[in-house]
Amino acid sequence: MLQQTQVATATPYYERFVARFPSVRALARAPLDRVLAAWSGLGYYRRARHLHEAAGIVVREHAGRVPSEPRAFGALPGVGRYTVGAVLSMGFGVPLPVLDGNVARVLSRLAAKPWSVKRAADARALWSLAADLLDPRSPGDWNQALMELGATVCTPRAPRCDACPVRHHCRARSEGRQEDFPPAAPRREGVRVRRAVARVEYRGRVLMVRRSGPLLDGLWEPPGVDLAGHEPAERALARALTSLGLRGKLHATRVLIRHAITHRRIEAQVWRCEPRQPLPRAGPRLRWVAPGEREIALSSLARRVLEFS
Question: Do residues 9 and 53 touch, judged by C-beta distance below 8 A?
């Protein structure tokens, strides 16, 4: 969870997740939909899929015990070099370094080098320095301290150098150039997406469609369509509903939901639909959901559509 989420945000999710799946075996036995539902709201859902898949492998191939050997642990889905170092050093005392954005910033400033983890040569230099500095007697404590230093003291802007325990060894501070390192990464230009979605309600339940594709694959959200050019939203949305076997009268609302997925800035206009009989049946792709539903993986857009009545 902490790979892409701040500690304060991840903590309540982690507590609920562990209460629901208290062991590797419990996680491996759980249906993927239930795992995604517990993850819902954290984003980057591929992490949840990898975690569920890895739990199955640990149960089948490692007798339910997380492997402490770097090669075996690194072979699990979704596990890269950073995760190997973090989990094995903290959980098993294996002397491996870590390198995340916070650590890279600390090391770049210590050396006063314009290193970027996005460049292969720079990443190699950063990993090498992290390994050289590692305390092999207590690698987990060392790695956690280094990450915490970057998160709370050696911050991207206005670093608290006077409170830094390694300030006398920091070359960037001695040159008065703390904020010059590491170099700012070029920001990816956002893509604006216009979307129309329908709140289709019947007997107190709202229709949801399972997504497929590279973004939010497997999550449920209201039926909708991305709008191209100046195509009227009502016409495009009616066509999308027809493809699901649903016909009805559409009514525009004043609800406009703005949210972002990676670099996509989405504006979703919400329409109400009075469905006509016969209604599409629930199945692998369609489901009628109660507004308070928490046992299926709803996208953030779905939850916001369910909130208003």
Answer: no
Contact 114, 182 (CB under 8 A): yes
Residue-wise pLDDT tens digits, 250-270: 999 999 999 888 788 999 999
Give the 3-state secondary structure of residue 41. Answer: coil
Beta pairing class for 224-226 and 248-261: unpaired
Q: What ranges do the domains of the chain cover?
A: 7-180, 191-307
> What pLDDT shows up at residue 4?
79
Helices within the chain (DSSP H only): 7-20, 24-29, 32-39, 46-61, 70-74, 81-92, 101-111, 120-133, 139-152, 171-174, 233-243, 300-307
Nearest CA among 189, 256, 262, 203 for reference residue 227 = 256
Predicted local distance difference test score (pLDDT) of residue 18: 97
Main-chain dihedrals φ then ψ at residue 32, nearest 5 degrees: -60, -40
Q: Who contacts 166 (Cβ-Cβ below 8 Å, separation ≥6)?
A: 110, 149
Answer yes or no: CATH 1.10.340.30 is held by domain 7-180.
Answer: yes
10 neighbors 44 (Cβ within 8 angstroms): no
Q: Is 137 helix (H, G, I), strand (E, B) or coil?
A: coil
Could you tell me which residues are beta bridge partners of residue 289?
A: 206
Cis peptide leading into residue 182 (ω within 30°): yes
For the domain with range 191-307, which CATH number is right: 3.40.50.150, 3.40.50.920, 3.10.25.10, 3.90.79.10?
3.90.79.10
Q: How far apart are the first and last CA of the chain?
A: 32
Q: Cis link prior to 214 (omega < 30° from 0)?
A: no
Q: What pairs with residue 111 in β-bridges?
A: none
SS3 label, residue 160:
coil
Q: Residue 302: helix, strand or coil by DSSP?
A: helix
Per-residue tokens: 308 = 């208003």
Question: What is the predicted pLDDT for the residue at 26?
Answer: 98
For residues 28 and 133, what is the distance between their CA atoms, to the nearest angstrom?
37
Measuring CA to CA, which residue among 184, 164, 214 is closest to residue 49? Answer: 214
